[in-house]
Amino acid sequence: MEFLLKPFMFTSDLVEDTVEVVISSGDLPWPQNVILCVPLLSSQVTLHEQAECLATQAFLRMHGLNFTLDERPNAEYMSVTAKLPLLKIDDHFVAGFDAITTYARLRIRKQLTSEQESAIRPYVEMINVTVRNAELYAAWVDDTNFRSVTAPRYGSPYPFPLNKILPLLKRVQIKAFLTENSPLASMDDVRESLNSDMKALSERLGPRPYFLDDLNTNELDALVYGHLTALLTSKLPEGNLTELVHRHQNLVQFCQRVDRKKEMGMNSELHTTTVVTSMRRLPPVVLKSDV
Fold first, then answer.
1. Rounded-to-integer distance, Cα 180 and Cα 172, Å
2. 3-class DSSP state for residue 151?
3. Which of 4, 63, 87, 268 is in Cβ range 3.0-4.6 Å of 94 for a Cys bridge?
4. Strand, coil or helix: 3
């Protein structure tokens, strides 16, 4: 019997269609019962997922948008594309940072100008491609990091032998994805790539408080915050990824500044609730023999 593992992907027309469906009702206020589904943050989430979840939470909080944070061990399998986090609005789902921020900006009618979009787009693409690929390689391909941190975390909610099998299957998928989409071949390549990306971000930020506006944050600020914070708090033993961020004090100070800003929420009425759903409340894992 083989486990039916979700296909590993970063783009999907299904997500774009869902965004269109959810916002089709017109100019409405932010919904009251919004749920953000994420993996178990303290024990399960892996490096690139942590970055995306942190970025999404930061974006919503910085814009004063209420939501309930629902930590679920099966969050990945709730998503059509396996992208995380997953935003639930009534009976609709929006998966992944890009789709969620698109939905949020359309819902609250807060759009960037074409000039602003052009200014941040290269850096958003850099994070979505080279930084994310480096995180994937470091966490999933490097043997030491995979066996000591990633595999135990990813498999932690499941009983034996699934806790051993699922990380291995996921690793095969991610290796195949990186083989087709990334030139990375070693941890030295990862460090070189991340070092170049950190330099570019540091130079773009300069002495300013945020990447685009001295007063307001946008999705680039949230995305950078999520990925840098994930790297700064990484427990991966190989690569010393934290040190690459610490080389640039303006980036470290930026993360601290966003930490303060998102906690204030830009809205005195902001309220976030956290719910943790245990495995005992979930349906049993389904095994299929024809995959």
1. 13
2. helix
3. 87
4. strand
Q: Could you tell me if 70 and 2 are in contact, meaning their C-beta atoms sit under 8 angstroms apart?
A: no
Residue 227 CA to its chain's centroid (Å): 8
Q: Of 206, 290, 287, which Cα lies nearest the Cα of 254?
A: 206
Domain boundaries, the chain: 14-286
β-sheet bridge partners, residue 68: 35, 273
Residues 6 or more apart from 191 whose CB is under 8 A from it?
239, 240, 241, 244
**Rounded distance between C-alpha atoms, residue 39 and residue 64, angstroms:** 23
DSSP single-letter state for residue 214? S
- What is the dihedral angle through the alpha carbons of 186, 7, 4, 92, rounded to the nearest 10 degrees? 140
- The answer to whether 18 touches 94, Cβ cutoff 8 Å, is yes
Classify 282 as helix, strand or coil.
coil
**pLDDT, one tens digit for every residue, the chain (291 residues):** 334 455 555 544 444 444 554 555 445 789 989 999 999 999 999 999 999 999 999 999 988 999 999 999 999 999 988 899 999 998 899 999 999 999 998 888 777 889 999 999 999 999 999 999 999 999 999 999 999 999 999 999 999 999 999 999 999 999 999 999 999 999 999 999 999 999 999 999 999 999 988 777 889 999 999 999 999 999 999 999 999 999 999 999 999 999 887 665 544 344 455 666 655 444 433 333 332
What CATH number was assigned to the domain covering residues 14-286? 1.20.1050.130
Q: What Å distances lie between residue 51 and 96, 109, 129, 219, 281, CA to CA?
A: 11, 26, 13, 13, 27
For CA atoms 47, 9, 89, 284, the dihedral sign is negative
Respond yes or no on whether the N-terminal peptide bond of residue 85 is cis (omega within 30° of 0): yes
Q: Are 20 and 99 in contact (CB under 8 A)?
A: no
Q: In the beta sheet, which residues pair with residue 37?
A: 70, 86
